[in-house]
Amino acid sequence: MRIENKKAYFNYEIIEKVEAGIALQGPEVKSLREGKGSIKESFGKIENGEVFLYNFYIAPYPAALEKPLPLRKKKLLLNKREIKKFIRKGEEKGLTLIPLAVYFNKKGIAKVGIALARGKKMYDKRQKIKDRDIKRDMDRKRKRG
Known about the structure:
Blueprint: E1 3-4, H1 8-11, E2 12-22, H2 26-33, E3 37-38, E4 43-47, E5 50-54, E6 57-58, E7 74-77, H3 80-90, E8 95-104, E9 110-119, H4 122-144
């Protein structure tokens, strides 16, 4: 199962992408396998040399005895070199860590695709919509005749 942040590419200019592991508890993994999670409002923060993901919602698994909080902060598993790179680049004004997707790799391990991103201005978003509409119209005309 793959959970994606579809608005990330529209709202942010992606500068750099990295794949990270995520520290989860058992019931959280089961809920994610069923696709019951959301990363729409989530963001990453660096605290004491560790990266955490905030507002990553994972629905409680119904049959679990222990039920972790759905919105607790989740630790991302990155090596020190990657964290230092994020700290260095994160000092630039306006950069933030956002998750792009949560998925399971071939070995069945939960991974998070995170990106260092800069928020787009409204006029950039409008231009992107305009370009997309023009391309769609051109494709329609090409198909017709």
